[in-house]
Amino acid sequence: MSDLAREAADRDAGDELAPLRAAFDLDDGAVYLDGNSLGALPRAVAPRLAEVVRHEWGRLRIRSWDESGWWTAPERVGDRIGRLVGAAPGQVVVGDSTSVNLFKALVAAVRLAGPDRDELLVDATAFPTDGYVAASAARMTGRRVRPVEPAAMARACGPRTAALLVNHVDYRTGRLHDLPGVTSAAHAAGAYVVADLCHSAGALPIGLDEHGVDLAAGCTYKYLNGGPGSPAFLHIRRDLQPRFDSPLPGWNSHADPFGMEPAYRPADGAARGRVGTPDILSLLALDAALDVWDGVDLAALRAKSLALTDFFLRCAAAYAPDGRVTSLTPAAHAERGSQVSLRCPGAGAVMAELVRRGVVGDFRRPDVLRFGFAPLYCRFADAERAARILGEVLGDVPGST
Amino acid sequence: MSDLAREAADRDAGDELAPLRAAFDLDDGAVYLDGNSLGALPRAVAPRLAEVVRHEWGRLRIRSWDESGWWTAPERVGDRIGRLVGAAPGQVVVGDSTSVNLFKALVAAVRLAGPDRDELLVDATAFPTDGYVAASAARMTGRRVRPVEPAAMARACGPRTAALLVNHVDYRTGRLHDLPGVTSAAHAAGAYVVADLCHSAGALPIGLDEHGVDLAAGCTYKYLNGGPGSPAFLHIRRDLQPRFDSPLPGWNSHADPFGMEPAYRPADGAARGRVGTPDILSLLALDAALDVWDGVDLAALRAKSLALTDFFLRCAAAYAPDGRVTSLTPAAHAERGSQVSLRCPGAGAVMAELVRRGVVGDFRRPDVLRFGFAPLYCRFADAERAARILGEVLGDVPGST
């Protein structure tokens, strides 16, 4: 056993979050470092979903909208996510995809900002859908999009800025951006912030209330483990809710949905972010998946996440042949999410071989290896093994240099 | 046994679709006439969903996007629905809610129609979400909404009409509208048709290709039995696809989703209607639910549906005290969907009592009893029993007249 492997074993033995791994189906022994793309399966999901299908749908049928709490599940599950993103109850609703929620939030932000502000600042390095959706929101509200590097975002906003679409953690590099700083600069300029939390929700403390973030959206299938394509969430800061003017005013966000009124009258609260009938099977699978978070201290989660990524970077430096990989992920803790991205020539072939040898990360074109460290179930031993096998693969697979 | 009960037994014995009922979990013997709101549970769903959760998500994890066909499921399941709505493969995609799909379709229709057409005609009797979404689409594209009674729709469209949002079957009355006639009038006027198929998909033959319907959306949790809030579908006529300009351009409809290109370049085909990551658990539950449709002849389905609703109307006339209920559903077959709506003073209390006695329909304010007849699993005996118990309830519950 190498020194690093021994250190990993010691650290796992002392990890207060280690018992949570047993709540996930990881029985195949995989080194699963792709929870930043699709979270592992919490064991609670399958039995709960079977009960929802067989009893709530199969037997109670339509009565479940009331009796099983289906109708209010988007807000109830939203509050559970609220705790994980630092939002007090009543501000988060679950449903639709992240893209659709970003569209709602951006259009609503522009409308909040009023007619005199004609530009939307968009993180130039964001996940592409953010830019596509922002362009559509701008086109449909008569605004223009200005792409800005995240580091320049706070300085870039001014009297013409309606809203800033900011990424909390970069999907490609794992870089954590300064959401509190940008929010504060935006507010000083009279603009609104829309935060994309896809790569931070469930990965680190976010503090939406603490920092006064206006609007936010994020997915639930990465660090929140809701299942493939599970419904996304939308956060609407409480004091903005009465003026939240959705571009997607479906019957589910009506003040009296069963009144079937011909004119739209928006509901109070986070329900204003709803649109159509909620997707109950996926929503309740997510609900079950969230059980594992009960009692988890987000400070401990963050500490473990940073320790894991620190340790992985050390192991990679020790095991990888000189110069074959370069970290794209910042060394500074304040700038790091819960993933490590390594630039590596021939990354596609390297990742394919890693997967064949039981280490699952993913590859992002053109040359990035991504390794996500979900602190609920990743072990220090996983980090050591992944780096060790990466070193072996790099020795076996010729580099392009 | 009454004559009507005997007739019901004879008709069930001669019903070629009768064996399909065994594919549903209706073991509790309920008279379930609410399949126009939430379809009954097909037995294939629970085992398939368990496999998706435990094996595809739990074991294959991220590999399932390719290996289990998750990525292309929206189009594959879309084609299965295509057969049921009369659309050749490649024109239907599954995802999002009906409301969201109507928004995409309406904005796309307005853009297809060009800048000189400034009005959207909307069925004044449609399910409210249609009107809310149309108002938003109009607001965001600088058009205006004109509400029109369905019967006047064909005559109302003219040179300023960009699009017509038409309801195929009215959710309240069960009236079937003339979709082919309206489509043909719209096309003659140079306008586009967006059809809401929520209450016709899986209830009767629709013939989207035959009638050249431009765009359509509908839900899958009623007659298609996809489960509570299962993802909706969007139909984009093949020749319009290259010009379909979505207001919700998410990464899933990009020509090269994993290229992560900063500029949006729409995919070819029905995939252009996609937005964010598809909701796999609900989508594959729907996929399993659709198995029951394999080999079902839609002409036979329609014949049974009309026979069931005819028979229920006869039974209700025979059993209900004089003048206590009035049918809102047209007597003419050409104007009837697969539900019967009865106006009844005190309908709320009457339906509550019906449910207590094992007959499940639903109540729509202010005074409507709705009974849906899903031809895949409803029996003539159900129709007779429902009408008989309705007669008893009306005898026991004093009318407000």
TrEMBL record, chains A, B:
Q: Which GO terms describe its cellular component?
A: cytoplasm
Q: Which UniProt keywords apply?
A: Hydrolase, Pyridine nucleotide biosynthesis, Pyridoxal phosphate
Which amino acids does the record list as binding pyridoxal 5'-phosphate? T98, S99, F127, P128, T129, D130, D196, H199, Y221, W251, T277
Q: Which cofactor does it need?
A: pyridoxal 5'-phosphate
Write out the GO biological process terms. anthranilate metabolic process; L-kynurenine catabolic process; L-tryptophan catabolic process to kynurenine; NAD+ biosynthetic process; quinolinate biosynthetic process
Q: Pathway, according to UniProt?
A: Cofactor biosynthesis; NAD(+) biosynthesis; quinolinate from L-kynurenine: step 2/3; Amino-acid degradation; L-kynurenine degradation; L-alanine and anthranilate from L-kynurenine: step 1/1
EC no.?
3.7.1.3
Which molecular function GO terms apply here?
kynureninase activity; pyridoxal phosphate binding
Q: What is the name listed in the Swiss-Prot or TrEMBL entry for this protein?
A: Kynureninase
Residues where N6-(pyridoxal phosphate)lysine is found: K222
Its UniProt entry gives the catalysed reaction(s) as:
L-kynurenine + H2O = anthranilate + L-alanine + H(+); 3-hydroxy-L-kynurenine + H2O = 3-hydroxyanthranilate + L-alanine + H(+)
Q: What HAMAP family does the database record attribute to this sequence?
A: Kynureninase
Q: What does this protein do?
A: Catalyzes the cleavage of L-kynurenine (L-Kyn) and L-3-hydroxykynurenine (L-3OHKyn) into anthranilic acid (AA) and 3-hydroxyanthranilic acid (3-OHAA), respectively.
What does UniProt list as this organism's lineage? Bacteria, Bacillati, Actinomycetota, Actinomycetes, Kitasatosporales
Q: How does it assemble?
A: Homodimer.
Task: Describe the family membership recorded for this protein in Swiss-Prot or TrEMBL.
Answer: Belongs to the kynureninase family.
